[in-house]
């Protein structure tokens, strides 16, 4: 019998009315703003009313470095939330909203998979509740106000050569990375070099995901540095009087989105920064609200633990005061074999020796997460091609590293296939073993913070940067930004900056080619290798296979 696609499974789901899902969390109907019958935004008044409630346990789901073989981190996050509810624990999940770029580019969808999905799948993957459009509009309003200010006399004395704020759109389009704008004569303003980033890389996205409430949101928006004067003093968004209007555009987007899993368990899907070019976590407000509503909150951080988990711990948890109780590292036999050197077309053949070599990638991630003082369990996301010998090899390897590896069949079986992992996660979270601590101190100089992440997490032998980059970091320290954490933009495919270098490389060189100050969000971005803040589409984008059927159904999302 043919295996059903993700979208076919999602379409067959028996959804509860979203008001009923909210009622199960104790959210009054008047505090939910419904978007149709199956999704709603949670009111700010209700969120404020939760302040004195105790917090539940926070569980992070992360993964090994991704490969073309697939890992299934979001699928495992959803499955684990369902699994915890299945074993009698009150739990919900907090995940990010998918970007249109990957949906129409390489991935085709990002709402989980198989029988571990959040629904409505089509809406979540496409326009959802309009949050990304609001973020894009707020970002580009600021861009328009910069050029408009210069056009009408430039009272702030902005140096046209030092405008740092680019434009944004939620789509992969390499042609917009670097361009010249305002052509066509005097009426169109002053021509200058500019460009676009993808919306998920926008500082506005990071701000929305790190802000504690609406007032914090507006304060952070005002702190965005958009340009510099000739004396190199910064010009802020608040200097342009843009912060109020930007916050108004984000008023509804700031509210967490409530949906459900295939098994009708509650989920917040809110915010969506990438982890390779941003901090890769869902919103602080969604996570903190969920912690007040249930006993266990399962959240994910993008890509491998070297990116998503590190930024989750060093940026989100540090700034929001979150204390993770346990972490799950997702791995697959297939991906570990690729890390050992097996080609994608040969993954169907048993190869325990190469698999064991590839386990070095998993071992590095286990050690890295433990470095933050968080107990770890490994989820082996099952594929039908896995053999008993290969699964046993992974379990043996993880056992030698002092952790458990549990085979999970949630993709095919839903919560029934992940109950064992749910039980182990609950034991870890309840055991009080976590002694969370960030990797570096706030007072450490910015360059040393970058070097610390590179040496301790990536196992790099050296970090290089041009004098201009080092001087810029020192200048920011003198301006009072030295206590900020660092957000390293790096390829997700390797611990190094070379995407083809799989496994667990040692002694490689990390070159920082550019640094950007996200003063409103509250971190410094260090761009390494060939990473792009505006991706391009692949040679055969998923968009070529997405269409509307004669019945009016979306087809091709997967």
Automatic annotation (TrEMBL):
<dbReference type="GO" id="GO:0004329">
    <property type="term" value="F:formate-tetrahydrofolate ligase activity"/>
</dbReference>
<comment type="pathway">
    <text>One-carbon metabolism; tetrahydrofolate interconversion.</text>
</comment>
<dbReference type="InterPro" id="IPR020628">
    <property type="entry name" value="Formate_THF_ligase_CS"/>
</dbReference>
<dbReference type="InterPro" id="IPR027417">
    <property type="entry name" value="P-loop_NTPase"/>
</dbReference>
<keyword id="KW-0554">One-carbon metabolism</keyword>
<protein>
    <recommendedName>
        <fullName>Formate--tetrahydrofolate ligase</fullName>
        <ecNumber>6.3.4.3</ecNumber>
    </recommendedName>
</protein>
<dbReference type="InterPro" id="IPR000559">
    <property type="entry name" value="Formate_THF_ligase"/>
</dbReference>
<comment type="similarity">
    <text>Belongs to the formate--tetrahydrofolate ligase family.</text>
</comment>
<feature type="binding site">
    <location>
        <begin position="67"/>
        <end position="74"/>
    </location>
    <ligand>
        <name>ATP</name>
    </ligand>
</feature>
<dbReference type="Pfam" id="PF01268">
    <property type="entry name" value="FTHFS"/>
</dbReference>
<keyword id="KW-0436">Ligase</keyword>
<keyword id="KW-0547">Nucleotide-binding</keyword>
<keyword id="KW-0067">ATP-binding</keyword>
